[in-house]
Design brief:
alpha+beta; five-stranded mixed β-sheet; three-stranded mixed β-sheet; 11 strands; globular; single chain; binds zinc ion; Neurolysin, domain 3; Glutathione S-transferase Yfyf (Class Pi), Chain A, domain 2
C-alpha cells in the first residue's frame, strides 16, 4: 500500500463546466456498469461507488472555494452554471432504486463479514434512501412526492412573507434626543437627509438596525413600537405553520415513524424523544433560579416595570457599568501570527499533533498558507489557512473539507485536507493584523471542525472525518476547541503585548469570561424556549401552536412577553429552514463540548491522557460510529448537562 500525494490546488475556470459534464456523464456510465454486475460485493460495488463521490467532491471543492475567497464575475458564472448540473446528478443518484437495491444486496450477502466502518457506510446509505421513501409502495411514494412539493412551497411562502413584512416597516426619527447614545456606526447606517435638508434617522426590522434600536435606543415608546412591529410580522404565517406541521406529521407516518420528532431523530445522536425532552428540562430547571436573580437585578437596575422591549436596552447599560470592556485594548495582545502559533502549540499539547509549514505549495492567494499535520512523526493531513479579509472574499468564517482520509479502490491511502477561511483585519508591511478576542474564538471553532475532518484514520470516505457525523454532534469538536480560547493557561502562552512584550493580565482575562457569562441563565432559558417549542410541536398531531408556546413559556420565560407577541410566525429556522425538531442540537453539542473540555481541564489541560484519547476516539473515528458510542468510549459515561452549566457560570 502506498500513499497518494496531496492534490495540487488548480482550477481551470475556462474548461470547468465541460470537465464537470464529462465527469458526471462518466459517473452515470460507471454506475450503470457497476449495477450490471452479476454479484455485487462491497469491493466491487460500494467502494467504487463511494470513491466516485470523493473524486467529484475533490474536483468541485477548489472551484467553490475560489468562488468564496477570490470571487469574480468568472467564478460566479462558473459556479452558477455548475450548481444545477450537480443538483440534477444528485437527484438522479438519490432516486435511483437500483442503487438502493444494490446496497441491500451487499448487506444481505456480506454484512456480518464487513468491518464496522463498512457496515456503517451500508447502513447510512440504505437509511438515506429509506428516509426519502425508496422502500415504499407506488401510492405512498406518489403522496410523499406531493407532500414534499407542497412543503417546499409553504416554506418558501413562509420565508417570503417574513421578508416582505420585514421590509415593509420603517420608523423615522427626527429628534436627535431619540437617538442619543446609539453608537456612531449604527447612527451612520440609519442617517439620511430629509427634503428640507435636515438629518433624520430611519430604523427598520432588518437585523443590525432592529438590534441597534432595541439595544441603544433611549426612547421607550419608540422601542415598543419597533418591537411590536417585529414580533407581529407576517400573521398570515400562522396558517402556513399549521399546514406545514400537518404535512410533516403525515410524511413521518408514511415513512414509518410515529411523529415527525422521531423521524428527525433517526439521523441524530440523541436516542429518542424522551432523552431530548429530559435533557431540555434538566437545563431549564437548573437555570431558573439564576435566571430569576438576573431578572431581579435588571429590574432593580432599570427601576421601571420592565417589559420585553426594555431588556436589551437596560442589559447593555448594566453590562457597561459592570465590566466596561474595551475591545481595542485587547488587540495589541492578539497579533494574528502569534495567535496562529499559539493555536498550533495548543494542538500539540492537547493531542500531540505537530503542525509544520508545507513548503513549495502553490495556492490561490499570497496571504494563504499551507501546513502539514503530523502525529508521532507520521504525516497525517494538510491544512490551508486563508485568514484575512479582502474585497473578493465572502464574509464570515468557515471550514471547508476537501480530501477525506480513506483507502482508494487499489488500497492506497489518501490523506485528508481542508481549508479554514476567516475575515481578520488585513496585515501590511507596516501594520500587523491585530485580532479581537471574538476572532480567536472563531479561529479555534473552525480549527475544531478542521481537525475533526483531518485527523481521521477511517478508511471509508463516506464516514471519514466530518462525513456521516450526526447532525446534533457536528458542532461538538468545534465548540470543544472554542472553549480553550477562554482558558488563561492557553491565552497566556501567546498573548503578549506587541510593543511592551508584557503578558496579558489576569484581570483582562477574567473580564473576558465574565462578559461571556453575563446574564447567561437568561440567554440559556431563551434558547431552551425555542428548542422546547420546536420539539414539542413536532411531537404532536395538529397541535394548537399558540397553546404549546404558552405552555413552554410557563416553564422558561420569566418575563412574560406582551400578549400580542407572535414570535412563531418569524421562526424561520424551523418553518423556512432545516432545523425542524432539531433546534435542541445547539445545546446538545454544547453539553458534549463542555463536558469533554472540563474533563481535560480537570486532568491538567496539557499533555493529558484524555487529550490523546480525544484524538484517538473522537477525531480519528469521524462518522464511522455514532457519536453516542464514541462519546461513551471517551468519557465512560453519558454526557453531563452540569458541565454546560459550569461553563456558562450558572450555579
Ligand atoms: Zn461550527
Amino acid at each position: 500500500m502506498s500513499r497518494q500525494p496531496f492534490l495540487p490546488f488548480k482550477v481551470n475556470l475556462d474548461t470547468f463546466i465541460d470537465d464537470l459534464k464529462a465527469r458526471l456523464d462518466a459517473n452515470r456510465e460507471r454506475i450503470a456498469k457497476l449495477l450490471s454486475q452479476e454479484k455485487k460485493t462491497y469491493d466491487s460495488f460500494v467502494k467504487p461507488f463511494e470513491m466516485m463521490d470523493e473524486y467529484l467532491e475533490q474536483f468541485f471543492t477548489p472551484m467553490s472555494h475560489l468562488h468564496s475567497v477570490n470571487n469574480s464575475e468568472k467564478t460566479q458564472e462558473v459556479y452558477t452554471a455548475a450548481l444545477p448540473l450537480l443538483t440534477e446528478y444528485g437527484t438522479w443518484v438519490g432516486q435511483h432504486l437500483d442503487i438502493y437495491n444494490a446496497f441491500r444486496e451487499v448487506r444481505d450477502r456480506e454484512y456480518d463479514l464487513l468491518d464496522p466502518e463498512r457496515q456503517r457506510v451500508i447502513d447510512l446509505n440504505i437509511q438515506g434512501f429509506e428516509l426519502s421513501g425508496a422502500h415504499l409502495d407506488e401510492q405512498s411514494k406518489a403522496r410523499l412526492a406531493e407532500i414534499n412539493l407542497r412543503k417546499s412551497e409553504l416554506s418558501n411562502r413562509f420565508t417570503q412573507n417574513l421578508l416582505d413584512a420585514t421590509n415593509a416597516f420603517e420608523y423615522v426619527i427626527t429628534d436627535p434626543k431619540d437617538v442619543e447614545g446609539i453608537p456612531e456606526s449604527d447612527l451612520a447606517a440609519a442617517a439620511f437627509t430629509t427634503d428640507d435638508g435636515k438629518t433624520a434617522w430611519k430604523f427598520t426590522l432588518q437585523m443590525p438596525s432592529y438590534i441597534a434600536y432595541m439595544t441603544y435606543g433611549p426612547n421607550r415608546s419608540i422601542r415598543e413600537t419597533i418591537y411590536r412591529a417585529y414580533v407581529t410580522r407576517a400573521p398570515e404565517n400562522a396558517e402556513i405553520i399549521d399546514e406545514i406541521l400537518a404535512l410533516r406529521q403525515e410524511s413521518a407516518r408514511l415513512l414509518g415513524f410515529e411523529t415527525y420528532a422521531d423521524y428527525s431523530l433517526a439521523t441524530k445522536m440523541a436516542k429518542d424523544s424522551d432523552t431530548v425532552l429530559r435533557f431540555l428540562d434538566e437545563l431549564a430547571e437548573a437555570s431558573l433560579p439564576q435566571g430569576r436573580r438576573e431578572l431581579e437585578t435588571l429590574r432593580e437596575f432599570a427601576g421601571i416595570d420592565l417589559q420585553s422591549y426594555d431588556t436589551a436596552y437596560y442589559s447593555d447599560k448594566l453590562k457597561k457599568e459592570r465590566y466596561d470592556i474595551d475591545e481595542e485594548a485587547y488587540r495589541p495582545y492578539f497579533e494574528q501570527n502569534a495567535v496562529v502559533e499559539g493555536l498550533f502549540e495548543l494542538l500539540n499539547r492537547l493531542f500531540g499533533v505537530s503542525v509544520r509549514p508545507a513548503e513549495g505549495v502553490e495556492l490561490w492567494h499570497e496571504k494563504a498558507t499551507a501546513h502539514d499535520l503530523y502525529v508521532d512523526d507520521t504525516l497525517r493531513a494538510r491544512l490551508y489557512l486563508d485568514l484575512e479579509a479582502r474585497p473578493s472574499k465572502r464574509g464570515g468564517a468557515w471550514m471547508h473539507n476537501w480530501q477525506s482520509h480513506c483507502t482508494d479502490e487499489e488500497g492506497n491511502e489518501q490523506l485528508a485536507s481542508a481549508f479554514i477561511v476567516c475575515n481578520f483585519p488585513p496585515s501590511s508591511e507596516e501594520n500587523p493584523s491585530l485580532l479581537r478576542h471574538d476572532d480567536i474564538v472563531t479561529l479555534f471553532h473552525e480549527t475544531g471542525h478542521a481537525v475533526h475532518h483531518l485527523l481521521s484514520t477511517v478508511n471509508e470516505n463516506g464516514v471519514s472525518g466530518v462525513g456521516g457525523v450526526e447532525w446534533d454532534a457536528v458542532e461538538f469538536p468545534s465548540q470543544f476547541l472554542e472553549n480553550f480560547a477562554y482558558e488563561p493557561q492557553v491565552l497566556k502562552r501567546f498573548a503578549k503585548h506587541r510593543e511592551t512584550g508584557e503578558i496579558i493580565s489576569d484581570t483582562m482575562l477574567d473580564k473576558l469570561v465574565e462578559t461571556k457569562n453575563f446574564q447567561s441563565a437568561t440567554a440559556m432559558l431563551r434558547q431552551l424556549e425555542f428548542a422546547m417549542f420546536d420539539f414539542e410541536i413536532h411531537l404532536r398531531d395538529r397541535p394548537d401552536v399558540q397553546a404549546v408556546l404558552d405552555e413552554v413559556r410557563e416553564r422558561t420565560a420569566l418575563l412574560k412577553p406582551p400578549a400580542y407577541n407572535r414570535f412563531q410566525n418569524g421562526f424561520a429556522h424551523i418553518f423556512g429552514g432545516g432545523y425542524a425538531a432539531g433546534y435542541y442540537s445547539y445545546k446538545w453539542a454544547e453539553v458534549l463540548s463542555a463536558d469533554a473540555f472540563f474533563a481535560i481541564v480537570d486532568q491538567g489541560l496539557f499533555d493529558t491522557k484524555l487529550g490523546r484519547d480525544y484524538l484517538d476516539i473522537i477525531l480519528a473515528r469521524g462518522g464511522s460510529e455514532s457519536m453516542r458510542v464514541l462519546f461513551y468510549k471517551l468519557m465512560g459515561r453519558e454526557p453531563d448537562t452540569g458541565a454546560l452549566l459550569r461553563l456558562s457560570g450558572i450555579e
